[in-house]
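Apologies for my clumsy wording, but could you write out the amino acids of a protein and the tokens describing how it folds?
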Amino acid sequence: MTSKVLLVVIDAATPHVVCPAIQTGRLPVMHRLAERGVLHTRSVTMFPSITPAATSTIITGAYPAEHGIAGAAWFDAARQEVAYYGDDFWIILREGFGHFINDFLLRLNGDRLRAPTMFEMIERAGRPAACLNYLVFKGNFAHEVNLPGLIAALPGVPFTETVAGPSMLCLGDFVGTRTPHGHKPEEQGGVLHRFGMDDASTGAMLKDLAEKKALPDFTVAYFADNDYISHKVGPVAALPVIEQVDRMLGEAFEAAGGMDLFLRDTAVIITSDHGHCDILNDPAVVIRLDLLLEGFRQADLGRAWNPKDEILICPNMRATQIYVQDPRPELIERIATSMLVDRRVDQVIWRSRLTGGSTGYTVATRRGRLEFTHEGAPGNAVDDHGSPWQWSGDGDALGLEQDGRDLRFVDYPNAFERIAGVLDLDQSGEIWVTAKPGCEFEVPGGKAHVGGASHGALHALDSVSPVIMAGGAAPRRLPAAMRSVDIAPLCMEILGIPMRYRVGDGRK
């Protein structure tokens, strides 16, 4: 039997904060859901563990190598431009606010996103879908865009008349469509509510649709505020934000007649796009990339190549990708050596062929070097999803343990699959670099989250999320080794719609 699906994504809901709060009753609605279903405490996201790429993975079921979103900042070689979807105000201002808005509404959800979204797949199967403030909304229906007056008045802001999304697309003050019954969901907009893109607005829309019995077969509701606050004060101090989401979910269930009635025909899945790593309250934890790489000719931040440039830096908080205009083996090695001089740098990662190897990937650290490949199966090891790998070198580079043929990653979960999942993208940087826990990268004009929290790296703190699943017509189990790429196949399975991937499938 099939059911409706409500997918709730709480940005940066971190298991070491959320799961104890569920168990102790600080999140009573989620506690009741977990009692009626299942709570998974360690679902592994993709790499880099950062919102634009991570939310794309959730809604497509694909890694960046397939969906094309290589983080929050990457270099688009075909257009000779840097794609940027971060939250650093001065970088956005330098790029141009109008360009940023247009890039988000049209490009991210247009030609940049290469894989089909669940919205597209579900509505092609003849089932209605809704998006409530989710950032990746690409769908099959045109919707009129209304720019709020304060934004429309800014110089350089282009007027975008339509965007393509699911049949019901609600993006704060920008897009608001009506239900098939002619009802427009209520939301709280304006400057104080980030133009209708904050949690209060998402919660109001969800409650309104639940009360009007207007939720379609598939709904995604996105709550972003926890990430903003966690960056400032850390995930523990930000728990009241998630408590408020918990209350809003309870209000939506009550508006629909109570949780038990709601769960009869609707499966509720709650998850996050990534975790959060506390950043020490010490300026010494900030890794200035421009200074660390001052021995190389750097492209201007956010700009395309000049002929004289050697490297182009695209920071992604606790990860960064470095593009190399002429990737000679000795230059790759020299960049890696320069990065690892700094004890705050964790890993430097690149495709092995760049330094004279064949297929596969190289991970260099101060703890040693490791190489691995998914070519030449059956290899000498198998991961939790049944994918074969061949590896050699120092397992400490990725916290790797092996029992017989079984791989076990502790501090860097599912590292092989996640690294391949971004380096196999044609728009990936030649080199990826991660920071050690407690540290973060910074470039001029950006601002590290000293005394707060950040994410983006391979470490488990950045990379794991909780999953709660309850309700629906038939009980279901979650795999022991859950990943964010499994969320889409899980939703599609509940809806009874075929998808190329199944829950738990190896991706290599």
About this structure: Confidence is low (pLDDT under 50) at residues 89-95, 189-193.
